[in-house]
Design brief:
about 80 residues; OB fold (Dihydrolipoamide Acetyltransferase, E2P); homopentamer; five-stranded antiparallel beta sheet; mainly beta; about 5% helix; 1 helix
Chain lengths: ~80, ~80, ~80, ~80, ~80
């Protein structure tokens, strides 16, 4: 997974029928890459999140053949992520 | 997923039999990478699109073993993708 | 797989229901990339570990559809990893 | 997929038993990366080709568990790949 | 696949139970990246090898859920890999 921060949202009115309904958030990773991830948690702009990528992101959905390759799997507790 | 913009199209007369019939568009990602993605939506040159990659791109097709690793899943509504 | 070193830990109180219970460690790869990996071994800060990525990381878990794309598969024996 | 150009060929006499019989071509992508891809089409040195990567490359083969992660899926029609 | 050269070996006494028994070699790709790959062929330090990555590397093993994402699939015949 990667740490990222929510930086925006995209809307797509014209899309393939298998794209699940829900928020598609723009996130920026620590390394500066920008991804669009499905958000099942209702995250806010600026929130620190944990992103999973690839086919395991699609396996989150009960339907087969969901074309999602990036998923927010958690909101990171900011005050507790100090070094161990 | 990644944001990208349609920048061209490729044709391949000689191809493997399992390549699905349809448009193969060249897209350029925000980071400047160029990919060839299958387009099920009829997108135009210059259009902003959402790209999914890897095995979930192939799962879009009803056939098994389709050798597609990049798919346009939506056209991005340009006026609405402001920051949240 | 990639060599990495444990550099921290993250906590996520608000997460998807399919995220397995256990430690999510921050690791830094030899190339300097930072990942968050699930740790089934109880590794410590500074420990040298072996990371596997992608869908095979999720297949470690008996449940299907676990959204984990990075797993610590071993602790590297440091004194023995000399050149052959 | 990615555009690439055939730049060489490799031979491997000592290999795992599940490696399919056929040509393994060296290709160079537009970004300058060099990959070794399985060629089911009989492409020539210098030919422009379309490469697919990851598990969908292996699904081209009727056998399960073929360890191929890059496949030439088409030869690009060079004169026709003008901008749209 | 990628060309790489064997540059070392790692040992991991403490590892997950599903890690297969066998050699884990450090290889360096042409682009300079260092990976740890499972070696079913008994390759030697300095040997030129062909590496496959991702879930197809794990499918080499008869067991399901093997957490291996990089596999040596062949030793490259060095004198024969001239340009075509």
């Amino acid at each position: 997974m990667m740490r990222a921060r929510v930086s925006g949202r995209v809307w797509s009115t014209r899309h393939v029928g298998t794209l699940p309904t829900g928020a598609l958030l723009e996130v920026e990773t620590e390394a500066g890459a920008r991804l669009i991830a499905f958000d099942p948690l209702g995250c806010a702009e600026g929130e620190a999140v944990l992103i999973t990528q690839g086919s395991v992101a699609a396996s989150y959905f009960p339907e087969t053949s969901v074309p999602i390759d990036a998923l927010i799997v958690g909101s990171i507790d900011e005050q507790s992520t100090k070094r161990q």
